[in-house]
Amino acid sequence: MQARPRICTLVVALQMCLLSTLSWAQEMVQPETLPQGFVLVVKDHSGKANKDNPIYFASSINGWNPADPEYLLEGRSDTRWQIIIDQDLQGVGVQFKFTQGGWDREELDAEGNAIPNRSLPKVDASKLAQGERPIIELEVIDFREPASLAEEVRKSGFYHTLEVTGDVSRMQVQGGGGGAQALTRDLLIWTPPGYNDPMNADRTYPVLYMFDGQNLFEQLPGLPGEWNADETATDLVEAGKIEPLIIVGIPHGGAHRLEEYLPFGSYRGVEGRGDETMRWILREVMPKIERAFRVKTDRESTGIGGASLGGAMALYASTAYPDRFGKAIVESLPMMADEGESASQYIEQAKRWPDRVFIGMGGHEVSNDPSDRGRNEQYQAWAKRVDRMIGQRGVSSGDRKLMIVPDANHNENAWSDRFDDALLFLYAK
Asked: To 10 degrees, what angle do helices 373-392 and 340-349 make?
């Protein structure tokens, strides 16, 4: 009778020893370290996924593309979804989310909020046979319902093949300033010659963010031209005249462009929301670019530019956030009736400026009509005044360039003609 406690103690000791041995035998590793890859199996609790609305894997290994056909999950007979990641990631950590083909259809939590980026859980490599892929089971609570504008864009065939020189990638982002907060749009990212060469795998590049990005690389219907940024940058890089850089086009918010791109005051009854736009760029746009592309993140290597209202935004961004932007392209800076003076007041009170500033202006910004000669001259005088004020704020003559082209108009053709001068001034070797 008295032997039972000793037997129980012995059994408990043996169990603890066995558990300790099993724990010691485990080999918990990140799936990214396994050369054979891994399998993700997803349970969709929303019931929204079907053959017409499948699930995509958007991650740091595919440029955060929310509709990458190479990372499309397959439906299973048990109503779950599956994807096999069979590439050797060589231990590089992966962050990811699931979407239904766009960031306007990203996965949500139970409260309807976008979830933080996912990371892969560790797996027990000791339980895997040679070359066997671990199966990781995950759950999606819900997917965001697409905004009506994004759905219209998708149906309109906007995602056509880009006819560009070099490589331009798309990256969907959501948000903006003012009424564009619910908007989904594509960033357009041009990478320089040699970017994808294995010998440059560890190389990082300066980056130039540009407003009105939909006009940089192709001519849209109804416009007189494009910036030809891809052709110009390619020629200058291949000629060895500038250092290779990455150009990021940030498209405007369509009907919301005026409020998005007004950094000071108001115009025509529209209150400017340029400050909101810049906070969105710093919070949403730049972090995604920095995760997906090999860009340098120091202020000296980061530029921002634009024309017209986009030029006003570039001027505002480079002074409101001088710790983030060291270069600026300010083209055809507008001189609106209730806006020009507030802009000059802003310039006079700005405490810090970027290292180098390119200012471009045409001699016929208003029109080619001789009757508009006086107003055209006002724009030229305005550009000279801005250049002079920037100099008075501490930017030396060698670090700023004013270029006024007498016959140039206020359009993409003029900005294209001056873009090589801007790149040479800011990025010359």
From this structure: 10
For 156-197, write each residue's pLDDT tens digit.
444 566 788 999 999 989 888 888 887 888 999 999 999 999
Distance CA 365, CA 214 (A): 21
Question: How many domains in the chain?
Answer: 2
Question: Any idea which residue has 């300066």 for tokens?
Answer: 206
> What single string gives the DSSP state of each residue in 46-71?
S---BTTB--EEEETTTTT-TT-GGG
The CATH number of the domain holding residue 75 is: 2.60.40.10
Using the 3D structure, point to which of 113, 143, 173 is the last residue of a domain: 143
Domain check: are 300 and 366 in the same one? yes
Reported in sequence order, the residue ranges of 298-355 that DSSP labels E, i.e. its strands, are 302-307, 327-331
Q: Which residue, among 162, 276, 37, has the nearest Cα to 171 in the 3D structure?
A: 162
Nearest to 321 by CA among 279, 360, 290, 260: 279
Place of tokens 């779950």: 80
In terms of residue numbers, what domain contains 171? 148-427
387-424 pLDDT, tens digit per residue, is 999 999 889 999 999 999 999 999 999 999 999 999 99
Cα–Cα nearest to 43, from 109, 124, 142, 129:
142
**Cα–Cα–Cα angle for 283, 285, 291, rounded to 5 degrees:** 95
Place of tokens 């972090």: 287
Burial of 270 (C-beta count, 10 Å sphere; 0-12/13-18/19+): middle
Phi, then psi, of 89 in degrees rounded to 5: -85, -5
Per-residue pLDDT tens for 309-318? 999 999 999 9
Cα-based angle 56, 291, 328 (whole degrees, multiple of 5): 125
Consecutive H or E run containing 404: strand 400-409
Rounded Cα–Cα distance for residues 74 and 41 (Å): 9
What is the C-alpha to C-alpha distance for residues 319 and 394, in angstroms, rounded to an integer?
12
- Is 406 part of any domain? yes
